[in-house]
Design goal:
Length: 236
């Protein structure tokens, strides 16, 4: 089948109320050798959620040049003219105008845009993933999810919902870390085990093996003697 024909099937799944995981399973069952990738299905689901109705390739007009990768948060096409940069390759070259098609983390509005996108994602997917949507609203800081569960069963459910919620928008989570040995629940397949180095986030260090929060304080005395002190607090 052609790409456009697969896009019609993806749109059909979207209109039927399926999520991206269900859509891939349904298409893969019928076309096991040529099913679109998970990233492609997530990307088109995101397009349809933004109101897109056609399944054809977008027209290309030269400048301004646009580029995006699956790891980035894409900006709504109608709002891209608010984020532009000027670029010239050499001193004698003409200045080119580039639209930012994805959130660029060195730009001033990047923090707001990424946070607002995650908030909207939680709103859109709350009916499908209620537990994960609540965590995204309350326990996310920029690109970090800092949360916890009362037991491993709850953790398994939360991880599954988080993965599916973010994949519905074409975002893939990585660098998981939790305060149990991976042997306790091997099916979770965390790519960062609790025995590894301490995780740093929000200006503090978390040792997942001992479940303690550490602060590195650099003390300079008389601009000559330097000492480094580590203060440990039990996490709760």
């Amino acid at each position: 089948m052609e790409k456009t024909e697969f896009r019609v099937l993806i749109k059909h799944c979207f209109l039927m109320g399926k999520n991206t995981v269900q859509a891939k399973q349904w298409i893969e069952k019928c076309y096991p050798d040529s099913c679109p990738s998970k990233a492609a299905i997530c990307r088109w689901f995101a397009e349809f959620k933004r109101g897109r109705t056609d399944t054809n390739d977008a027209e290309r007009s030269g400048r301004p040049v646009e580029a995006v990768t699956p790891e980035n948060i894409e900006i709504n096409p109608v709002e891209r003219h608010f984020l532009k940069i000027l670029w010239k390759q050499g001193s004698n070259e003409l200045v080119q105008i580039y639209k930012l098609k994805a959130v660029t983390y060195s730009a001033t509005p990047a923090c707001f845009l990424s946070t607002r996108v995650l908030k909207q994602l939680a709103i859109d997917e709350e009916d499908n993933f209620p537990i994960a949507a609540n965590i995204v609203r309350q326990d996310v800081y920029l690109d970090d999810i800092l949360s916890g569960c009362s037991n491993l069963k709850e953790l398994e459910i939360l991880k599954s919902e988080l993965v599916q919620l973010f994949e519905s928008a074409g975002i893939f989570l990585h660098k998981w870390c939790f305060s149990h040995s991976n042997r306790d629940l091997p099916d979770l397949q965390f790519d960062q085990l609790s025995e590894e180095d301490t995780v740093k986030t929000l200006g503090v260090l978390w040792n997942s093996s001992s479940d303690t929060v550490c602060l590195n304080v650099h003390i300079t005395e008389n601009l000559v003697i330097k000492e480094t002190t580590s203060l440990k607090l039990h996490a709760f």
